[in-house]
């Protein structure tokens, strides 16, 4: 009789487990858990702002067109949000945060990079869209933080607008260029034009 009770108990508990796991629909998520979540269809959720009838800003969770491979029905944990330095109030999906050394340090830290595959995958793809390989950026950041950020800015200049290149960042250290020397052909042509007058 005891052997019958255990399988029956497991069957009943599995029913409760399936009933408690509802489908994740971005539009049904509250704004405070929207960012960095993934719907049941495998699409990323993103936080957007809209104006209500009183012209006040309100936040809504929407389904993006960004698909995530091998991950669905995921609501990011508070531990990963904290470890990776992301903000649940971030509106939209952007690579701009990668330009901030403090954020990139947290993203590259073992607490984030080894434990939070969802956030790492998101920023890996955002960095790749800017022509940057995130593991190389993290490695460069460990070796020389200023230089790695300069390289990222210069490699992603088209996406972020005209940012300073690495050469421009270190331009102050370069000696001033020598004054231009007028060539003989230019001086001859000037004297010819003087003689014509």
Automatic annotation (TrEMBL):
Organism listed in the record: Hibiscus trionum
Annotated spans, Disordered: 154-197
Annotated InterPro entries: PAR1
Protein name: PAR1 protein
UniProt keyword list: Signal
Segments of skewed composition (Acidic residues): 183-197
The keyword Amino-acid biosynthesis appears for this protein: no
One Pfam family it belongs to: PAR1
Superkingdom: Eukaryota
Signal peptide: 1-22
Keyword Hydrolase among record annotations: no
């Amino acid at each position: 009789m005891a052997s019958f009770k255990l399988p029956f108990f497991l069957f009943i508990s599995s029913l409760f487990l399936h009933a408690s796991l509802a489908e994740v629909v971005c539009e049904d998520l509250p704004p405070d858990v929207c960012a960095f979540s993934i719907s049941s269809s495998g699409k990323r959720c993103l936080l957007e702002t809209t104006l209500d009838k009183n012209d006040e800003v309100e936040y809504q969770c929407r389904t993006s067109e960004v698909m995530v491979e091998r991950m669905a029905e995921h609501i990011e944990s508070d531990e990963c949000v904290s470890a990776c330095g992301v903000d649940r109030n971030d509106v939209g999906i952007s690579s701009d945060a990668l330009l901030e050394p403090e954020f990139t340090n947290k993203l590259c830290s073992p607490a984030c990079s080894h434990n939070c595959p969802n956030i790492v995958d998101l920023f890996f793809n955002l960095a790749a869209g800017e022509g940057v390989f995130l593991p190389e950026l993290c490695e460069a950041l460990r070796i020389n933080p200023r230089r790695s950020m300069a390289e990222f800015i210069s490699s992603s200049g088209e996406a972020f607008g005209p940012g300073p290149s690495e050469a421009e960042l270190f331009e102050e250290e370069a000696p001033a260029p020598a004054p231009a020397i007028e060539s003989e052909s230019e001086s001859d042509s000037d004297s010819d034009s003087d003689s014509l007058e």
